[in-house]
Specification:
The chain is about 5% helix and about 40% strand. The protein is mainly beta. The chain has one domain (about 5-490): YVTN repeat-like/Quinoprotein amine dehydrogenase (Methylamine Dehydrogenase, Chain H, 7 Propeller), CATH 2.130.10.10. The protein has a five-stranded antiparallel beta sheet, with no helix packed on it. A hairpin with a 4-residue loop joins strand 28 (about 405-410) and strand 29. The longest helix is centred in the C-terminal third of the chain and has 12 residues, at about 330-340. The model is unreliable at about 5-20 (pLDDT under 50). The structure holds fe (ii) ion (FE2). Fe (ii) ion (FE2) binds near residues 193, 194, 305 and 485.
Length: about 500
């Protein structure tokens, strides 16, 4: 039964029971607490091109296009979604031409959103919300909201959503074009929001499937963009996997014990059970032979994001992950915030895991909370020294984005810029200088929300001196919703 053909023929179909939307108390809560602004719905689907107001001296050499994506249509057709991950994706684009920054934004009109807009009501289940009039889902892409991450690979701009296909985006109009297929017979397969691209363009990815059975789909996409290898690895206890790492020789996928139990809940999220007694399991796969794989058992923990991974010649693997004690962030904080409540959770903390060839392991870390890690992209799968991440400011829930941090993993040193309460720095990408010599010779570029003045913007730091604060800011006169991930294209 667990053969690749039957899996590919069946995957993507699903049937979920009903779950009503919760009442919308958000707008009243927002009046009382402006920090909720990141979860408000933009008033328009299109932000027309607008030059941003520059504060400081924007680096003239930093030229290209920075794009970000995240859930945006939280409230639409009179209903508000239950969870941060539910809503339809919106791309924010920032063009940097050396003299200034121009912003525009566009809601992605996926087949799912187009159908709902035509009918004037919510009709498809989301990650954690099921409308009362929800229609049956024939395949996962029926509910694809393309809201999680972006990838510019081999000339294609892709919007990623881990439950189904990547979406091809027209880079001129920023409009949704089509679902991406990586090859014949691969249509509709789940594709992670966190593929890894090595410096030579080789792409590695996985997809987490829960139907027709739990499985990880492994992808090796060659430099010319065609699917080189795709393999299905059945999972006896399918967990909630969001990210992974690649090293020189291995793919490493951590499966936490947040187990999918088909039919056990009203929605996809609600169909998971936290089973810490199972521990976390790590799948280690050789990149040159997907059939050579092993599992390592680790203590139970839950996390979304990795930093990077690398391996020694003897097969010892080192990788970064932000790990929490349990999934309360996903299950509670990200649900409560949609109702207008900022509640604490087990916060992900920086963790370094070492897997030895004999099956033993070590779990170490500095205990610091944070998430949304990034590295110099030239270090993907290689040993890296620096890791950049966002962290909270003091006095706010520990998961609320605020400060920017730089970790020196060789000297075990932490550098931090805290903009103060009310300003929320989001994921910052590392962009190398044109003549970089050292790993941290580059800029950190990212968006932020100033909830105290209801404005969003773009910040640029010199990665060699994060604690010195931003080199320059570019401001919009209005707020954008907090998003997830971005990408930078130099052209
Ligand atoms: Fe992510």
């Amino acid at each position: 039964m667990h053969d690749r053909r039957s899996f590919l023929a069946m995957t993507g179909a699903a049937s979920l029971p009903a779950c009503p939307l919760r009442a919308d108390s958000f707008d009243a809560a927002l009046v009382a607490d402006s920090r909720l602004l990141g979860w408000a719905t933009p008033p328009v689907d299109h932000f027309e091109p607008r030059p941003m107001e520059i504060e400081g001296t924007w680096p003239a050499d930093l030229q290209g296009t920075f794009r970000r994506i995240g859930p945006a249509a939280h409230s639409r057709h009179g209903l508000r979604y239950r969870h941060w991950f539910d809503a339809d994706g919106m791309i924010q684009e920032f063009r940097l031409d050396g003299t200034g920054v121009t912003h525009r934004g566009r809601m992605l009109m996926t087949p799912k959103l187009a159908l709902e807009d035509r009918e004037g009501k919510r009709l498809l289940p989301a990650f954690a919300t099921r409308p009362e009039e929800a229609r049956p889902v024939r395949r996962a892409d029926d509910m694809n909201v393309a809201n999680t991450a972006l990838l510019d690979h081999r000339g294609e701009l892709l919007a990623l959503w881990e439950g189904g296909s990547a979406s091809i985006i027209d880079r001129e109009s920023l409009s949704w074009e089509a679902f991406k297929s990586w090859g014949e017979g691969l249509e509709g397969l789940p594709f992670t929001a966190h593929p890894k691209v090595e410096p030579d363009g080789t792409l590695w990815a996985f997809g987490l499937a829960t139907f027709p059975y739990g499985a990880l789909v492994l992808y090796h996409i060659s430099g010319n963009g065609a699917a080189a290898r795709v393999e299905v690895v059945p999972l006896e206890q399918p967990g909630f996997v969001h990210d992974f790492v690649v090293t020189r020789d291995f793919l490493v996928i951590v499966v936490p014990p947040l187990v999918h139990v088909p039919g056990s809940g009203d929605t996809y999220l609600d169909s998971h059970a936290w089973k810490p007694e199972l521990g976390s399991r790590v799948l280690v796969v050789r990149k040159d032979d997907f059939s050579r794989r092993r599992w390592v058992q680790l203590p139970a923990a839950f996390g979304f994001h990795h930093g990077n991974g690398w391996n020694e010649d003897d097969g010892t693997i080192h990788f970064d992950i932000f790990l929490a004690d349990d999934p309360s962030l996903l299950e509670e904080s990200f649900t409560k915030v949609m109702e207008g409540h900022l509640v604490e959770a087990s916060v992900p903390r920086f963790t370094r895991i070492v897997l030895h060839p004999d099956g033993s392991f070590a779990v170490v870390g500095d205990g610091g909370g944070g998430d949304f890690p990034t590295i110099n992209p030239a270090r993907v799968s290689r040993r890296h020294r620096y890791l950049y991440n966002v962290s909270s400011t003091s006095g706010t829930p520990s998961w609320l984005p605020g400060a920017l941090e730089k970790r020196d993993l060789e000297l075990d040193r932490l550098e931090r810029f805290d903009p103060g309460e009310g300003i929320h720095l989001e994921e910052h990408l590392f962009i190398p200088f044109s003549h970089a010599a050292n790993e941290d010779d580059g800029w950190l570029l990212g968006s932020f929300l100033d909830s105290s003045t209801a404005r969003s913007g773009l910040a640029v730091f010199d990665a060699r001196g994060v604690a010195d604060g931003p080199l320059a800011l570019a401001w919009l006169p209005f707020p954008l919703p907090l998003g997830f991930h971005g990408q930078f294209s130099s052209a």
